[in-house]
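User: I'm curious whether this sequence folds into something compact or stays loose and floppy. Could you predict its structure so I can see for myself?
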Amino acid sequence: MDETKETFDPERARGVFRELLYIHTILRRDLDRVAQLAADVRAGYPVQGVVDTVRDLETNSPLWRLREGCWRYCRILHSHHTIEDAAIFPMARRKDPSLNRVIDKLEEDHLIVHHITERIAALATAVSTNDTFETRADLVGALTDLESHLLTHLAFEETSLGPLLSTWNSWPED
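Assistant: Here's the prediction. I'll summarize afterward.
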């Protein structure tokens, strides 16, 4: 089975883990749009079409609506990871120190994802000012990297932290 596609049955998820899976489901759905956008850019899709697709994501995703359409996908993703890094991971380390290595990897993944999203932003600007085969290829590569890395990360996080988070019906006390 492809580990990037493995997900948990939401009916088996409990507590805080159910909330994490909800956010991950939205991120995966939007990544499907990102993958299609990468294919479109590769096929010569006009830059304005890329901009329109991003604007559509901004206004139609529940995560963007939650932030009143002001944040871009990458900022929402960064915020999600910041919350995990600042709150969920430290609590998980306290509750189950055997997860320290797993959490170290998840934190490293967050940095990698952040660098990829920054690269995407820079490349999208580059394509809008210098629309060449090379700039498009670079943008496609970055979008593909985001999809691949983030899907693997989400699956690993769910598999690794799901059992612990499923035991939290509310935020645990220290």
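Summary: Residues 133-165 form the longest helix (33 residues). The CA atoms of residues 125 and 135 lie 10 Å apart.
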